[in-house]
Each structure stands twice: as C-alpha cells, then as structure tokens.
TrEMBL record:
Residues 507-528 are annotated as: Disordered. It is an enzyme of class 3 (hydrolase). Belongs to the glycosyl hydrolase 13 family. It comes from Periconia digitata. InterPro entries: A-amylase-like, A_amylase_C_dom, GH, GH13_cat_dom, Glyco_hydro_b. Pfam families: A_amylase_dom_C, Alpha-amylase. SMART domains: Aamy. This is alpha-amylase. GO terms for biological process: carbohydrate catabolic process. Substrate binds at W104, H143, R225, D318, R365. Its cofactor is Ca(2+). Disulfide bonds join C51-C59, C171-C185, C261-C304, C463-C499. The keyword Zinc does not apply. Residues 1-21 form the signal peptide.
Length: 561
C-alpha cells in the first residue's frame, strides 16, 4: 500500500471534536485530484462518448466510472479526490443547461441520481479507503437553485428548507465590496436565481449542521470542499465546521490573503486563491516578474493561521485553463510545479495533466475521457514525478509540510525556492521565460540550499544528477524556461523510481520504465538524460484572449457554481 495513514475520523466524530488535530495532520500531507463527477469517467469507462461543453448536457460521468479509473489518479500520486456536489439539483434544463455540475441543489436529502445510487457513492468511498485515499465532497450551503424568475420560486419543493422564512428576500448583488450585500443578496440571474439561505438564523444553522453530520457519516466522507464561502456570514462556518467534524477547505474567491485567511479562523482551510493570482501574475509574459512569488513567499506564511493546509491550485472549473492563455508547455510545467511544491495541499483539476485548453465556464469543463486517460502525456508524468518527490520528502520528515518555502535566488524572471530541512529538502527553480527562451545560468550557495559539498543531488524532472562542489557554489542551468526540482539522491534511493519517467511514446525515451515494470536501478538517474517535457509551444502568456479571466470569474460568480 502506498499510503499508510490510519483514519481516525471515527474517533474525532465520537468525541465530537472539530476537525481534530489528527484529521488536519493527515490532510496536510495529502495531494488532491479534482474531478467533476459528470465529466471524469463513465461507468463503462469508454473514451469516445461526445461531451459538448457548450450544450450544458449531462455527459454521463458516474461514481462507478470514477472507481474504475482510480488507478489513473493514484498512479499520478494523488491521495485524495474531490468530487462534485452529490445532492439533488434542478432536474430540468435551464437557459444555462442542466445542473450537471451540482451547484443548484433543491433536496439535500436526496442524491443526484445521474451520478449513481447511494450504494454507488458508498462503493466509491470504500474503494478510495481501500487504497488509502480520501474522499472530499463539494458542498453548498449558501444557496439553492431555481429555474424561473425569483417570484416563481416554490419554496415548499425544497428539502429541508421548505419555507420562505428560511431565505433572504430576493435582491441582486449590486456591490461586491459590501459584505452585507454579498452575504444577504442572491447569486444567479433572473432566469436561474439562487435563493439565498438565512445562514445567520439559528434554525437554518441547526438544519445545515444536522445534514452535514449525516452526510459525512452516511458516506464516510473524509473532507469537504465548500462552495461560495464568502457569500455566507462568517460566524456560520464555526458551527458548520464543528458539525462536519472533518477537514474542510472553503472557496473564498479573493486575491487578498488577509481577507481569504480570515475564514481560516472558522474553517480548517481555504482554497488558496491568493497563491493562484500570484502564479498567474508571474506567468504573464507581458508583465510577469518574480515579484508576485517573492511577495507571496514573504507574506503568506504570516497572514494565515496555518498556511500549510491551504489548498493550492492553478486550475479549477471556474478558471481559464493555463493552456487557454498560452500553448507553452514550459509555462504549463512551471504552473504545475508551483502547485505541487508550494506550501499547502496541492490540488490539480482533471485535465490539467492533459494540457486541456478550455477557456472559461463552460469550455473549461471538458470530459477527461476524451484524452483517452493518456498516461504518457508530458504533464501526467510531471505530476507523477512531483507528487512522488513531495511524498518522499514528507515521509522522510513530516516537518516538510510546515516548513515555509523561501527564496534562495531570484532575478526578474527566475526564482529558486527551498522547502524542507536537510535530507528532505526540495530546491526548485521556476521561470516565466517560456520554451523559446535561451538557456541561462546562475549560482546558488549549497549551504543555503541545505546541501553539503560532495553530496549527490538529483534533478527529478530530467533524471540527472550532479555532485555539490567543494567550494559550495552550485551553478544552476535553466533551459527553455523549464522548472528544475532538486532532491538529495541519498533521500531518493528508497524510491529510485522517483524520477523514472513513464514516457514510452516520446522519441528517444526508449522503453525503459515504460510500464513502470523495469527496474529503475538499472537506469541510474543521470544516465538516461531523458527530459520530461519537450516544450514546443510558442507565444506567451497573455497573447490570447487577454483580460477575459476577469469576465470568466464574474460569469462564474453570477451562477454560484
Ligand atoms: C454544441 O452545443 C451547442 C449548443 O447547443 C451547439 O450550438 C453546437 O453546434 C454543438 N457543437 C457540436 C459540435 O455539436
Ligand atoms: C452595505 O450595504 C448595506 C445594505 O444596502 C448598507 O446599509 C450599508 O450602508 C452598506 N455599507 C457600506 C459600507 O457601504
Ligand atoms: C443518512 O442515512 C440515514 C439512514 O439511512 C437517512 O435517514 C438520512 O436521511 C441520511 N442523511 C443524508 C444527509 O444522507
Ligand atoms: C484585504 O482584506 C482586508 C480584510 O478584509 C482589508 O482590511 C484590506 O483593506 C484588504 N486589502 C485590499 C488591498 O483590498
Ligand atoms: C558562479 O560560479 C562559478 C564557479 O564557481 C564562477 O566561475 C562564476 O564566476 C560564478 N558566477 C557568478 C555570477 O558569481
Ligand atoms: C497580463 O498582463 C496584462 C497587463 O497587465 C493584462 O492586460 C493581461 O490580462 C494579463 N494576462 C493574463 C492572462 O492575466
């Protein structure tokens, strides 16, 4: 078994604890793969079924399908999955299509049967736990959904909030900077309004708390992703978190770290949007410099109660895919490396490993099966290697998780970070110059990196090694803007496959390790010289569809999804 962490949630629940220390501790070392249940895998795991994202139809993904494709996820190194909301939604087609995403719920005590039965969901939970993996379920408490004008809402059709008294009066959010308007008014629009719950009301809170405790228990859920957190009054979250009794990461869509992390006083974690924005600013070929990342490294660690459990990401179903902004594979690799190696719990959105290029909602909600679940793709293997090296560092020294990333070197376009104590230290180099850029080199000090002269260091993305020189000056070479990820060779030997790139399709990669069956020891790192990604793209960040990021986010916010 890859992961040996015992589950003690039952205990946490029995003692009525909040996300207990143990629970938080267990999540800290996890790595999450986000799937939209309808779009990840069909029960028959076929890869040809059409899925027109524009049409807003159900495309046929199910819990059974996910179960059958868990190898694809686990082999990439993920130890948890986040699935779509499971509850019953608006059943009919709206102007914006069907509620296949799950954010327009109507009955919290009934499942969305497009995804499968209660037995199927329990089977998914069991299948994950049998692999030592965790189940994270997306939940919504801010709103319900309705197909029709706000004054036509039939409140009695909802469960359990079957009376208008549980809801705020309909009003549009006219000022996103005014929290009382943001919290009390309705998301959605005049055709699909999202009736907004009175979450400040003690009866509403009790009903939500009863529901979440049951949901967690009925399906043995290990973690929650909570939707639209900033649209709910903050005090609501303390009791909800307590009632859930498990790790919860809340969606607080803001680039303001102080604002976002304020919610960590109620919830175990929040989605790390401030990190996302820093990465996006860094990758922008028009304006990008390393300043946003340096500032992030300097400030995030002291702005949040526990930065090591924030969930980091560079894509999700609400954001333009990286490849919709730039076809450059080198920049895409940097984005993934930052996601997986920054402080926090990395979260990768299905399709990012296939270099999917969907722009905003609904284009960025492509069916994963259309990639054929290609395990030989460049980015699949980047993720695989980086998850491995992170897991290895954590296994050697759990303090890796709480060690705050810090810069060793930076210039305008390249930055080197260190994370971890000697022996479990990862030193990573990020660059925003893209695959067309000339190679460049600079020096770093081995003592700052945590390396002793004479030590052998592995670069895990190219599977090459070097020996730290006696004078302690290490010359780092960056080629084609690709990231570099250094790890002590002695620390990697427990898992020599750490940088074994499964890449049989690539020219010159040979068959070594093609199926993960040949001994990596035969191909010692440094002797293959294989490189993971061969960036071939051109252009740069921001050359395409500039500024639509903002429009995409707005569209998403309107729909509350
Ligand atoms: C996808 O759906 C949209 C909206 O229904 C439609 O206009 C478009 O023709 C469809 N595309 C394909 C390839 O079927
Ligand atoms: C926010 O909106 C509320 C409700 O409209 C209003 O009473 C309040 O004055 C506004 N606050 C600010 C700071 O504008
Ligand atoms: C949990 O299961 C119990 C027993 O089957 C059922 O009565 C209850 O409605 C379920 N609650 C949820 C939220 O699924
Ligand atoms: C960030 O959020 C904090 C807390 O809500 C607020 O006081 C501050 O003004 C915000 N900063 C910016 C630049 O908006
Ligand atoms: C980097 O280190 C090499 C080898 O020690 C040395 O020759 C070179 O001058 C150094 N470059 C800089 C910019 O310090
Ligand atoms: C890149 O920066 C420019 C200038 O600030 C901005 O207009 C553009 O929207 C940015 N691109 C992205 C993808 O954020």
């Amino acid at each position: 078994m890859l992961f040996n962490l015992p589950r003690t949630f039952a205990l946490a629940l029995a003692t009525g604890g909040v996300a207990s220390a143990a629970t938080l501790e267990q999540w800290r070392s996890r790595s999450i793969y986000q799937v939209l249940t309808d779009r990840f895998a069909r029960s028959d795991i076929s890869t040809t079924a059409k899925c027109n994202t524009t049409a807003g139809e159900y495309c046929g993904g199910t819990y059974r399908g996910i179960i059958r494709k868990l190898d694809y996820i686990q082999d990439m190194g993920f130890s948890a999955i986040w699935i779509s909301p499971v509850t019953y939604n608006i059943p009919e087609k709206t102007k914006f299509g069907y509620a296949w995403h799950g954010y327009w719920q109507q009955d919290l005590y009934r499942l969305n049967d497009h995804f499968g039965s209660a037995q199927d969901l329990k089977a998914l939970s069991r299948a994950l736990h049998a692999r030592g993996m965790y189940l994270m379920v997306d939940v919504v408490t801010n709103h319900n959904g309705w197909n029709g004008p706000a004054d036509s809402v039939d409140y009695s059709s909802y469960r359990p909030f079957n009376d208008q008294k549980y809801y705020h009066e309909p009003c549009a959010i006219t000022d996103y900077t005014n929290q009382s308007i943001v919290e009390d008014c309705w998301l959605g629009d005049s055709t699909v309004p999202l009736p907004d719950l009175k979450t400040e009301d003690s009866t509403v809170r009790k009903m939500y708390n009863t529901w979440i405790a049951q949901l967690v228990s009925n399906y043995s859920i290990d973690g929650l992703r909570i939707d639209t957190v900033k649209y709910v009054d903050q005090p609501f979250w303390s009791s909800f978190q307590r009632a859930a009794g498990i790790f919860a990461t809340g969606e607080v869509l803001s680039s303001n770290i102080t604002f976002a992390c304020d919610y960590q006083n109620q919830l175990s974690s929040v989605l790390h949007y401030p990190f996302y924005y820093a990465v996006i600013d860094f990758l922008n070929s028009t304006t990008g410099t390393t300043a946003p990342l340096l500032s992030a490294a300097a400030t995030f660690k002291s702005s949040c109660k526990d930065p090591s459990v924030l969930t980091t990401f560079t894509e999700n179903h609400d954001l333009p895919r990286i490849a919709s902004q730039t076809p450059d594979l080198s920049l895409a690799t940097n984005a993934l490396a930052l996601t997986l190696l920054w402080d926090g719990i990395p979260t990768v959105y299905a399709g990012q490993e296939q270099h999917y290029a969907g722009y905003a909602d609904p284009d960025n909600r492509e069916a994963t099966w259309l990639s054929g679940y290609d395990r030989e793709s460049e980015l699949y293997n980047v993720v695989r290697v980086l998850n491995r090296v992170r897991s290895r560092a954590l296994a050697l020294d759990p303090r890796y998780a709480t060690y705050n990333i810090w810069p060793l070197y930076s210039d305008a376009h390249t930055v080197v970070f260190r994370k971890g104590f000697p022996g479990a230290n990862i030193v990573s180099v990020f660059s925003n110059t893209g695959s067309e850029s000339a190679s460049l080199s600079f020096n770093i000090s081995s003592s700052a990196a945590g390396w002793k002269p004479g030590a052998e260091i592995l670069e895990v993305l190219t599977c090459t090694k070097f020996v730290v020189p006696a004078d302690g000056v290490v010359v780092v070479q960056v080629e084609r803007g690709m990231p570099k990820v250094f790890f002590p060779l002695a620390s990697a030997v427990g898992d020599l496959s750490i940088c074994r790139v499964v890449h049989p399709g690539g020219k010159g990669s040979g068959a070594k390790g093609a199926s993960g069956t040949t001994g990596a020891a035969g191909a010692l790192p440094g002797e293959t010289g294989r490189s993971v990604a061969r960036p071939g793209g051109i252009g740069g960040w921001g050359k395409k569809k500039k500024a639509v990021a903002v429009a995409g986010v707005m569209a998403y916010e309107m729909l509350g999804a």
